[in-house]
Design a protein that fits this description.
- With 170 residues, this protein is mainly α.
- The chain has a single domain, classed as Nickel-containing superoxide dismutase (Four Helix Bundle (Hemerythrin (Met), subunit A), Up-down Bundle), CATH 1.20.120.
- The protein has six helices and two strands, in the order ααααααββ.
- The protein has a two-stranded antiparallel sheet with strand order 1-2.
- The protein is flat.
- It starts with a helix and ends with a strand.
Length: 170
């Protein structure tokens, strides 16, 4: 039987599927979205802090500047996608109608957060990045409330980016 399946796989290879997860596994946590949003804030800080080389700068200085802005932008966009992915997982797999009844603004909060992920990918906009972080914090607070768990906001302790993260209390 194994040989039949192997032959079928060679003839028509199965598609790769990515999910978290449609079992459902029951393991959800808004922490990754918050960290991703905080990373977006940091990348915007780094981009805004880059000094453009003078017109007379060497090729190496221009190459370094171009490399840095490219890398910071790529990481900013990657983490905006991570935040969006994590938010959508919570929205589609975790949150239920009873959560919407208790938190009537949940749909609006999630919608705004996902729209902000697009904004921070399209722009170098610290206000939008901070709004994304605030939305992820709000989603985290709602998430933990649906589990009957109190939360606290704590400084991220992530150097220059600052910001707070929402944690469940023990």
């Amino acid at each position: 039987m194994d040989r039949v399946f192997e032959a079928l796989d060679r003839a028509a290879p199965p598609s790769v599927a990515h999910a978290h997860c449609d079992i459902p596994c029951g393991i959800y946590d808004p922490h990754f979205a918050q960290i991703a949003a905080l990373t977006v804030c940091r990348m915007v800080q780094l981009i805004q802090g880059l000094e453009k080389p003078a017109a007379s700068a060497s090729k190496q200085e221009w190459d370094t500047y171009t490399m840095q802005i490219s890398r910071y932008t790529a990481v900013k966009e990657e983490h905006a996608k991570i935040a969006e992915h994590e938010i959508v997982i919570l929205w589609t797999d975790y949150f239920k109608p009873e959560h919407l009844e208790k938190h009537r603004d949940l749909h609006e909060v999630v919608w705004k957060a996902t729209k902000l992920t697009s904004t921070v990918k399209q722009q170098i906009n610290m206000e939008a990045a901070q709004q994304l972080l605030a939305s992820c914090q709000q989603i985290a607070e709602i998430f933990w409330d649906t589990k009957g768990v109190k939360t606290r906001r704590q400084p991220s302790n992530q150097g220059q980016v600052g910001g707070e993260l929402v944690y469940p209390t023990v």
